[in-house]
Design a protein that fits this description.
- The protein has helices at 56-62, 80-83, 89-108, 120-130, 153-166, 187-193, 202-208, 225-229, 231-234, 243-252, 297-308, 326-329, 333-336, 338-364, and strands at 11-15, 21-27, 34-38, 66-71, 113-118, 139-143, 172-173, 238-239, 283-288, 314-319.
- The strands form 2 sheets. It has an 8-stranded mixed β-sheet with strand order 1-2-4-3-5-6-9-10, with helices on both faces. The protein has a two-stranded antiparallel sheet with strand order 7-8.
- The protein starts with 10 loop residues before the first strand and ends in a 16-residue tail after the last helix.
- It has 14 helices and 10 strands.
- 36% of the residues lie in helices and 13% in strands.
- The protein is an alpha/beta fold.
- It has a domain at 8-150 and 252-364: 3-Layer(aba) Sandwich (Rossmann fold), CATH 3.40.50.
- α1 (56-62) links the parallel β3 and β4.
- α3 (89-108) crosses α4 (120-130) and α5 (153-166) packs antiparallel against α10.
């Protein structure tokens, strides 16, 4: 498949209110609904546009959707992971995502805007969404985790140990084993973190088992050979400043705000799960049946949301035999995963269109139009 090279018109830079320069890249038709794609931690928006496979932007474009690929401050394509100031997911939720949505809105007007988020991107999205900072989204897809982070007992202990042992002595972990070298003072640390797994590539072993977390991030056989050989390019430095916040959320089994006393962050809810009633658009929770990173977090989220917030339209879909990252970077994801996302977008778009038509008819008929639940991407 021949893909057009990105041009300067496809790349849009913007600045957050706390002074970071981030970027968006748009792919696909200009007249259809828009989809904001939010990557996970330690990777970049490139995870959505791998040229060696039929990727999510290809599928969305063929279905009539315009993709907007966001590189937030945790992107390995930006310098902040290695040289930027420490941050927590509060910063992503308060500064990065609202600024990205505002930038897209300037470009697309009142066309419907969806958000599809992976892993830490989905956690940050949940904090923004329940804080009321992303009004007007037409729908949300969260892959792997959303409001109820949950990891295995062994992964929990490893995160706890890493927080205590590494502390401020190690600011980030490299994903590319070649950057560590044989004579680095941390070579033994990286050797220990990459000891698990059968693959001869140490970078693959390091990434595959979550930089020492011990939980597989993907099913190895699901990767295209080219994707496997590019892992050192696709994954960058992973900042450890987020570990205490991640540990706090996992222990609470809820997305919580880290900056409790700083007034700048009071726009975010103290506990996103407690503020779930503010979610005003349909939500699709996705997870691979072999997700070792977040185990059954999204199944739990569906159960909790359905019981506590029946007014929130939420559904859960489990992808058989898939892990965590391979739901987006797997060579068969276009057949096994992306159809669920497009079906959700299509159904929601059709509902928005029907409600908009009914609203317009009521105005023409001279009746009381009331307030439509969804018009041009305004949520429910």
């Amino acid at each position: 498949m021949t893909r057009p090279e990105p041009t300067s018109a496809d790349m849009i830079s913007f600045r957050t209110d706390d002074g970071l320069d981030l970027r968006l890249r748009k792919i696909g038709p200009d007249n259809g609904p828009a989809v904001l794609l939010i990557h996970g931690h330690g990777v970049s928006a490139e995870m959505f546009a791998l040229p060696e496979i039929r990727n999510i932007t290809d599928v969305l474009s063929d279905a009539g959707y315009q993709s907007w690929l966001l590189d937030w401050r945790g992107s390995c394509a930006l310098p902040y992971n290695e040289s930027g100031r420490p941050y927590t997911f509060d910063d992503v939720a308060l500064y990065d995502l609202p600024a990205a949505v505002a930038t897209i809105r300037e470009q697309i007007g009142d066309r419907p805007l969806f958000a599809v988020a992976h892993c830490i991107g989905a956690i940050s999205l949940s904090l923004s969404l329940t804080g009321g900072l992303l009004p007007g989204l037409a729908g949300v897809v969260a892959q792997g985790v959303f409001l109820t982070p949950k990891v295995s007992t062994s992964a929990r202990m490893r995160v706890l140990l890493a927080s205590e042992m590494l502390g401020s002595r190690v600011t980030h972990l490299e994903s590319d084993f070649r950057k560590v070298g044989l004579w680095n003072k941390r070579t033994l640390l990286y050797a220990a973190l990459s000891r698990k797994g059968d693959c001869p590539d140490p970078t693959c072993r390091l990434v595959h088992y979550g930089w020492g977390m011990g939980a597989k991030l993907f099913e190895h056989d699901h990767l295209h050979p080219v994707t496997h050989d590019r892992l050192a390019e696709l994954f960058g430095a992973v900042p450890l400043s987020v570990l205490p916040h991640l540990r706090q959320m996992e222990l609470a089994h809820a997305v919580v705000r880290w900056n409790v006393d700083d007034e700048r962050y009071h726009a975010l809810p103290a506990n996103a799960l407690d503020a779930a009633s503010r979610i005003d658009c349909p939500v699709l929770l996705l997870a691979g049946s072999r997700n070792e990173a977040w185990v059954d977090s999204n199944r739990l989220c569906h159960e909790v949301l359905s019981a506590r917030n029946p007014g929130v339209e939420v559904r859960y879909t489990e992808i058989p035999s898939y892990g965590h990252l391979d739901t987006f970077i797997g060579r068969g994801a276009a057949l096994d995963v992306f159809g669920h996302i497009v079906d959700f977008l299509d159904e929601t778009t059709a509902q928005i269109t029907n409600e908009s038509r009914e609203y317009a008819n009521r105005i023409v008929d001279g009746g009381n139009p009331g307030r439509p639940s969804a018009i041009s991407g305004a949520g429910r």
